[in-house]
Automatic annotation (TrEMBL), chain A:
Keywords, in A-Z order: Transcription, Transcription regulation
Keyword Plastid attached: no
Protein name: IBH1-like N-terminal domain-containing protein
Entry annotated with the keyword Cell inner membrane: no
GO BP terms: regulation of DNA-templated transcription
Domain IBH1-like N-terminal: 5-67
Species, as recorded: Vigna angularis var. angularis
UniProtKB/TrEMBL annotation, chain B:
Keyword Nucleus among record annotations: yes
UniProt keywords, alphabetically: Nucleus, Transcription, Transcription regulation
GO cellular component, one term: nucleus
Statement: the UniProt record of this protein carries the keyword Transcription: yes
Localization per record: Nucleus
Name of the protein in question: BHLH domain-containing protein
Chain's gene name: Vigan.02G007000
UniProt organism field: Vigna angularis var. angularis
Biased composition (Basic and acidic residues): 127-145
């Protein structure tokens, strides 16, 4: 498990740096624009702390660099061009496995009593539904299988927590700065 | 049909050769086929898959010989049945097994999954055949013992000798190969308990499930309020809620930052410069009354936020600390003379706090300051500053 403080430090550095870059590009922004910029740079900074080791960070960066406006910022924050994703092969692969598994289950279900079949079917449906929701929440989650989904969620939650803490601190500090500029 | 066979065996003299050959063939089939199956299930390397091909070839040979003999047969019905079954068996010796397999583990997994239904089908078929075979074989053995007197004479017959040798060597090879396969270090260190399936697919599936549940346990520790929930669906619910709440917090905080900084100049450098502020040395000693701590805690930290701070480390790194120091600097910029005369006595730093209390509440301060300052303290500070100016 990585040290949470070094992560926070790195995140803060990258975030501020990205924000400065962003500010140098555009001068007068509306509130929503500013918010978007802050959010984007924070996300990118968070992703770049876990650069190229986790799938969610890659997906985040890839999503950010899709928008042409953000490309410059992305490159600035990362210091390099974002990696190209190859998702299509992955997807078909997992899909094929899933279909095979289904057919297997059908085979096996013959020997189990009917009540249990129904119960386990419902339970499986519930879990599947939630898994799908979790996948939609995670950046790049659509392309993960179950094992990697749980792993990535672990990592993502940790990073999000660090991000929230740092942001909260910064908000507090800047509010105080404004309230009494000494 | 067995009956017919027996009687026909009694009737025909040259039938014995045919019978023997067939019996041997069945024996070979059983052994060869099952060892081949074992090899398939227990192995992960390529060489073992040559063996099924061998046995398949041997079977083919025997079948071909059996075909060459129909002229000497008195009972075409028996022959027909046998031939068809043996042929179908040779066909059922799956071509998928003979084809070269890639050694990559992921592809291996996939291919094994893909082939599973086939195998199942084959296995079923074989067992069906097997029961028939056994019955027939019993009959054949009886036949042989009746006619030749000893079962060992089977090995001494001239035309079959070479083949039997080949067969036994073949089966030995098979068994050796399977032994070697068993000795090889497995990648999966899972042991099946009683009543659990032992084929590679269900082993792999079990490994996968165990992996997932292990990670889920970690997630359970990480996600607050997830400890008491059993069941995967409930846990996933909690995780989803937590991730969503964190994402919303990020949104909210970025909105707040945008609102606070009209020109998007997060003057982090200014914040860092404040580090040299003399009061910064006092940083951890910023005191708040326990009342305020508690009330602030309760008031501002919704359960969610509260737990999100649960993992906060007490070790603080430079920039992060810098932020906090600036906060502390602002706080302690209010002179101490004012402390005793105002209603803010409790809020502001006092030397009395250097004691045990500080140690007890240190963590709490850290946690509370982030949330409770903006509205309570900062307004208080402004007021305090105004008072101070008036007094001066």
């Amino acid at each position: 498990m990585r040290n949470i403080n070094t992560v926070k430090q790195e995140f803060l550095k990258k975030w501020i740096w990205g924000l400065r870059k962003y500010r140098s590009q555009k001068k007068n922004m509306s509130l929503l624009e500013r918010k978007k910029a802050i959010k984007l740079s924070a996300d990118l900074a968070m992703a770049s702390t876990r650069n190229k080791t986790t799938r969610w960070s890659k997906a985040l960066i890839a999503n950010a660099s899709k928008n042409s406006n953000n490309k410059v910022l992305t490159e600035h924050v990362l210091g390099s061009s974002p990696p190209v994703r190859k998702s299509s092969t992955n997807y078909s692969h997992s899909r094929r496995i899933r279909s095979c598994r289904k057919s297997l289950r059908r085979n096996r279900a013959v020997h189990i009593p009917k009540d249990r079949v129904v119960a386990s079917f419902i339970a499986r449906k519930l879990v599947q539904k939630r898994t799908r929701r979790l996948k939609s929440l995670l950046p790049g989650g659509e392309f993960m299988d179950d094992v990697s989904l749980v792993e990535e969620t672990l990592d993502y939650v940790q990073s999000l927590r660090a991000q929230v803490e740092v942001m909260r601190c910064l908000v507090t500090a800047s509010e105080l700065m404004i309230l009494n500029p000494s | 049909m067995l009956h017919c066979e027996n009687t026909s065996g009694n009737l025909a003299g040259d039938m014995t050769v045919w019978e023997r050959q067939r019996a041997r063939m069945k024996w070979q089939e059983e052994h060869g086929y099952f060892s081949a199956f074992d090899a398939v299930f227990s192995s992960s390397s390529q060489d073992s898959f040559v063996l099924p091909a061998d046995s398949g070839c041997a079977l083919g040979e025997v079948v071909a010989q059996a075909r060459a003999r129909p002229g000497s047969m008195n009972k075409p019905s028996v022959h027909g049945f046998d031939e068809s079954s043996s042929i179908s068996r040779t066909f059922s010796c799956p071509p998928a097994l003979v084809e070269p397999r890639p050694t990559g583990s992921s592809i291996e997994k996939e291919s094994s999954k893909k082939r599973k239904p086939e195998k199942l089908h084959n296995a079923k078929f074989v067992t069906e055949n097997d029961t028939k075979d056994k019955r027939i074989k019993l009959g054949a053995d009886d036949e042989q013992s009746k006619i030749t007197g000893s079962p060992n004479s089977n090995a001494n017959t001239d035309s079959n000798k070479r083949e039997t040798c080949a067969d036994t060597s073949n089966s030995k090879q098979n068994s050796k190969a399977s032994e070697i396969q068993n000795q090889k270090p497995d990648y999966i260190h899972v042991r099946a308990r009683r009543g659990q399936a032992t084929d590679s697919h269900s082993l792999a599936e079990r490994v996968r499930r165990e992996k997932i549940s292990e990670r889920m346990k970690y997630l359970q520790d990480l996600v607050p309020g997830c400890n008491k929930i059993t069941g995967k669906a409930g846990m996933l619910d909690e995780i989803i809620n937590y991730v969503q709440s964190l994402q919303r917090q990020v949104e909210f905080l970025s909105m707040k930052l945008a609102a606070v900084n009209p020109r998007l100049d997060l003057s982090i450098d200014d914040l860092f410069e404040k580090e040299v502020f003399p009061c910064a040395a006092n940083f951890p000693n910023i005191g708040m009354s326990s009342d305020l701590t508690n009330s602030g805690y309760v008031q501002f930290n919704s359960p969610q936020e509260m737990v999100s701070y649960g993992g906060l480390d007490t070790v603080i790194n430079p920039p992060y600390m810098g932020l906090k120091r600036t906060i502390s600097a602002h706080l302690s910029s209010v002179p101490e003379t004012y402390l005793h005369s105002s209603s803010f006595t409790q809020l502001l730093p006092s030397s009395a706090w250097e004691g045990d209390f500080q140690n007890v509440f240190n963590l709490d301060f850290d946690q509370v300051r982030a949330t409770s300052f903006p509205s309570h303290l900062s307004s208080g500070l402004v007021e305090a500053g105004n008072h101070l100016k008036m007094e001066m």
